[in-house]
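User: Quick one: structure for sequence A, then sequence B.

Assistant: Sequence A:
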Amino acid sequence: MKIEVVKSKIHRVTVTQADLNYIGSITIDEDLMDAANLIAGEKVQVLNINNGERLDTYVIKGKRGSGEIIMNGPAARKVGVGDIIIIVSYASMDFEEAKSFKPWIIFPDTATNKLIN
């Protein structure tokens, strides 16, 4: 039996920009992507702390060290600049493997979106 489990989580980052006219997706600082083990094109769920919205999109690599979190396309209507969000990706795996799997969960500084050492 296969189940879906949390693979990666960026807990509480601040949206720095929203671009309604972009094709779609979420742009994430490459440092955060690396720390959370996310790759460009990966499907993620975005959870908006400010208004309760939940949406699925995919990751675009942002400028390393910039702290940028940009909501692109129609999602920019559901998540605005200054909103605090959680970004989650999931993996499908065997039930027994899932019991010992350890997800990548990071807690950046919400003021700067930079990694806290």
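Sequence B:
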Amino acid sequence: MLKHGQREVGVRLKEAEKTILKTVVIHYLQNPEPIGSVQLKDAATLPHSSATIRNHFRKLVQEGLLEQLHASSGRIPTARALEHHWQEQLQPQEPIPIGDLEAIGALALEFELFVLLQPAWQNRLRSVHAIGAQLLAASFEEGVATLPASTIVGKLLEEFIGYDLADLLLIAQNNRIDALSGALTRLRASQTLRYNEQALIAVAARWPQWSARFFEPFFDGSIAAGQKPGLFFEPLAPEGHMVILQEARLKNRPIRLVTLGPTTRDYSRFMNHLSKEGR
């Protein structure tokens, strides 16, 4: 079953066509320029003649997987082909180790991606205190949420001592306790690590309709809440982009890794570098 934001890319191809398509995609990810049949044969040492490759090119163009920008140019993969490639290559359900946080920031800049890390371990409510006559402080195992003083909310929170932050936030949202929901959302956002925020801002500036719906959830980390690991395309990502929600571990603690960027980035290499940093 497809999750929200995912789009199935049904492709039935012969093995030779699959090999050629994969080769074109990998070449394009490493060198974003069109490639012709002769160049492809030489670069990948394919067991096909240039004429045979051109025949497969025509089939792949008909299937909407390759395109030719100019009559004299080679082929490049379409957005559909890139989506299919990543659905085949990435396994976000398998947790990966995350290591040096500074290295993550460097990789986000190198690959021009927006990367978000959100703690997935439990953060239980420990106590509730009135701070003077104006504030209520909910103290968690990690962090404190403050909100305007309210006897009703204070008594409610006391009943939920020992509950996890994520569960309390869901209760507040479902019951429309806006002040509590806002305070818990701010606490969660403060514990969320963001890398290369300029990449997110650039996407938001180019696709304002997408931004109006999704910028804030990506920025505060709520995009990861309640979502299962997977690859996501439109509408969760703008046209030509993708989102990876990946299970990960940071110092043996569970964490959610969210990556947003164009489908033309080399996500396999990005994930390999991340995993190496965590070993």
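The radius of gyration is 23 Å. The longest strand covers residues 241-250.

User: Thanks, that's what I needed.
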